Amino acid sequence: MNKSALQIARAAYQPKLPKVLKGAVKALDGDATQSVADQEEIKKLFPNTYGMPVVTFAEAGDVDLPAMNVGVILSGGQAPGGHNVISGLFDGIKAINKDSKLYGFLGGPSGLVDHKYVELTADIIDEYRNTGGFDIIGSGRTKLEKTEQFDSGIEICKELDIKALVIIGGDDSNTNACVLAEYYLQKQCGIQVIGCPKTIDGDLKNDMIETSFGFDTACKVYSEMIGNIMRDANSAKKYWHFIKLMGRSASHIALECALQTHPNVCIISEEVEAKKMTLAQIVNSIADVVAGRAAEGKNFGVVLIPEGLIEFIPEMKVLIAELNDLLSVTSDVKEALKGLSAASAAVYNSLPSSIAKQLTLDRDPHGNVQVSQIETEKLLIAMVKTRLAAMKAEGKYVGKFSGLGHFFGYEGRCAAPSNFDADYCYSLGVNAAWLIANGKTGYMSLIRNTIAPADQWIAGGVPVTMMMNMEKRSGEMKPVIRKALVDLNGAPFKALSDNRSEWAKETCYVYPGPIQYFGPSEVCDLPTKTLVLEQRNKK
Amino acid sequence: MNKSALQIARAAYQPKLPKVLKGAVKALDGDATQSVADQEEIKKLFPNTYGMPVVTFAEAGDVDLPAMNVGVILSGGQAPGGHNVISGLFDGIKAINKDSKLYGFLGGPSGLVDHKYVELTADIIDEYRNTGGFDIIGSGRTKLEKTEQFDSGIEICKELDIKALVIIGGDDSNTNACVLAEYYLQKQCGIQVIGCPKTIDGDLKNDMIETSFGFDTACKVYSEMIGNIMRDANSAKKYWHFIKLMGRSASHIALECALQTHPNVCIISEEVEAKKMTLAQIVNSIADVVAGRAAEGKNFGVVLIPEGLIEFIPEMKVLIAELNDLLSVTSDVKEALKGLSAASAAVYNSLPSSIAKQLTLDRDPHGNVQVSQIETEKLLIAMVKTRLAAMKAEGKYVGKFSGLGHFFGYEGRCAAPSNFDADYCYSLGVNAAWLIANGKTGYMSLIRNTIAPADQWIAGGVPVTMMMNMEKRSGEMKPVIRKALVDLNGAPFKALSDNRSEWAKETCYVYPGPIQYFGPSEVCDLPTKTLVLEQRNKK
């Protein structure tokens, strides 16, 4: 591997650990737990893993534990810090007993099913400490849902004498990890399953999980770029930058980046849905901000847009559903368009032609509109431009509007982890090793009190069933971990809504700059604004 | 101003200076100089500023100099470090005499003409030390070319008792600075003019100027993003990322980013032009790399594309010229297309329809094709996809191709300067103050030996006329600073061409990570690969 100067220097970083995880720990069990909703159904589906207590770790003094082999799996999209979960897990099982072995299943969950794996030795692990990416063993999106898959997993675990699997993934992957844990308990095959909360989207969090790993780093990378673009906007004073940010189902990334950088406009999908806003209302609200600034001679600005916006606009959701239905029976677009309801036809006709084309022509193999392919930033630029022309004709706008679109997503998923993510992930990994050593299964690795310095973090585990409820998926009710959307009554959203009229009018940009690894702690160890606001509020 | 934690910590950074600039200096004059070409014409146009010697500064011991007021102008596109040139200039004139004053002309050269200015006091300067952007006084693209503009400048300089102007800009702005210096000498009005070499594009360099400021930081920001995307590509293993990089007239940025990150393909416009490559040849060469990797199971990769590529492809240049001519007499696209030569019609018909549309419909107010609006990254993705389909039909390609386009430009122009740019720019500013104190005009601020530690840098000045030749601009021969294109016989290009077949086939990605300000010197103080290769080679 060719290494950059920074990578070489950063390899030596020793991630900070909670004090308790610096030695052996024992599990202190709390009270029995319940799922967040649908208790009866969840209990029936998870007879062996339901109701288990939240676990907190305490120092155990000297212990003598047998060697244990562990398998690790990366599941789903990349998030900064995955390699540190694995190096923490490696160091954890080696500290427990130096003869323990770590196996990495290759290319995601399919590696377990297809018996593709590699032993992760110290030499390999040392190449990946504090680095971004999931390339150490690769990731994949195969879902572990079927008993044949589970049984195939048992085979390879028996062959390699694997005592436990650690699955690093998002809400779905952790749900599946729990299904697997339940199945292995029923089968009494002695294989434990532990999950780790991963996703840059930040939507895997709740009363127990304070944040998912990767969110911190990804938001900092995006905020670096947004800040740079803001400084450019404020220097050139002639462009409006519309920046779309990754994150389809929740707007945590857009919100966090807004709190870090103070854009003129930041759209939050959850608010759009709650207020049943139309596309025209969104466009008009942006155009009003543009016109307001233009009136003061400021023909520049920055707008943040969450990637999933389109799907949160009620009328767009209806239009897309109608198009999917119509285009499933005919591939003749003109014919299909005739079938639209009057309301949807009106929405469709309000769209710029390039976007209308994306809605009808770019369909996936099932005939569905590919929502993720829609260039929402360009859609809004085009519609704001049209709106401003109308306002100009009415004498309500004086100025020049020149829009530039950006999309930030892939830039942040594999960035090298910030100190926060490096420490948090490494702790999650060491902690997972101790959950295994303490015989736990169906748990998620849990590190709390994360806005305090790392040595004060609290280590333990939370039963996955505690976070579940029943939701409809492809027409069927399924047990799933409840996704955390942006809470419109929460402190982070309030920090936006309290300030956004000032941010719209004035130029309050903040330039966070690049993630720093070697400087003063107040620069290098900052958690996200979202985490601080949420956790401070809890206290 | 709301400041980020990093901005607050970074404000305290004291940029490194060449040893000689830590005290008073005197100018040592070298031999008389000549322009790089067209000596007779240049001499005639610049009778007062032609032939002046290169100046090197030496320690002067204690000197007692009068106060001097200076005006500063930012010209053209933003580049990281502009604020440090200004803070260096401020500290320089204050060190010379504490009663000196610095005036900033607002919004670029037009501020001088329209008498819009602000006095830059210590309070203001301290807010901008080591920050990105040009927002301290703003920039602009007004060209200083007419005597009325020059005379208007004299008025305000007399009013403010300004002894000298410092113009921070690219090749054109520095040419104009010299025209101004010449005019002010002819008029004997006693106003000196000094230039500073700015441009992220890296094309303002020559035997004297080792690098323009901003290139270092911008390339590092782009390389951070490219590295992150590479790690994502190598983790997800399913996308080909086509990344377009800012820089229209030269490919230095793409080349430097390639040397920092080792992409699978990097196109260099100067090579395309020299080899008279067709669009089809470029597409085929990329498709061959994709097919080669696919044969080994690697359906992912990264391609770097210089923004100006289209204009360097001979057949595209002809097509665009023909379209400009045809569309200047008719706005009927169909009619205009009939007028294309057979060769151009063939090229036009080979283009994806969305790009063909950009060529004919998106025209500027003069009817010209807007080359900068052409989404070259998407053009290449579409054409490579088509080519691969043909290769698949012939059995020459097995694999899946999924292309994603990116454009990095605005993200880098206003980033906070790297240590190199912070030091280099601050030195250029202090140095400019001493050129003024030594009575120089028509000079560019010159800092050399820049791959050595900063205290060994050599300070002085170079006459702008020395860098000039005559070139045709809008049909007229004009004196201009010769632009530095990528030298196909130079060490940086050789470092690419020697390695690119390996980089194409293997996965040799390097992940530079974010710019660091506080870490070990081997991480924080690295100059660009281009600079090191060029300067080492010179020695």
From TrEMBL, chains A, B:
Q: Where is this site: Important for catalytic activity and substrate specificity?
A: D172
Name the pathway it acts in. Answer: Carbohydrate degradation; glycolysis; D-glyceraldehyde 3-phosphate and glycerone phosphate from D-glucose: step 3/4
Q: An example Gene Ontology cellular component term from the record? A: cytosol
Q: Where do the catalytic residues lie?
A: D201 (proton acceptor)
Alphabetized InterPro entries for the sequence = ATP_PFK, PfpB_PPi_PFK, Phosphofructokinase_dom, PKF_sf
Fetch the NCBIfam families from UniProt: PFKA_PPi, PRK07085.1
Protein name (Swiss-Prot/TrEMBL): Pyrophosphate--fructose 6-phosphate 1-phosphotransferase
Q: Supply the source organism for this entry.
A: Candidatus Enterocola intestinipullorum
Q: Which gene encodes it?
A: pfp
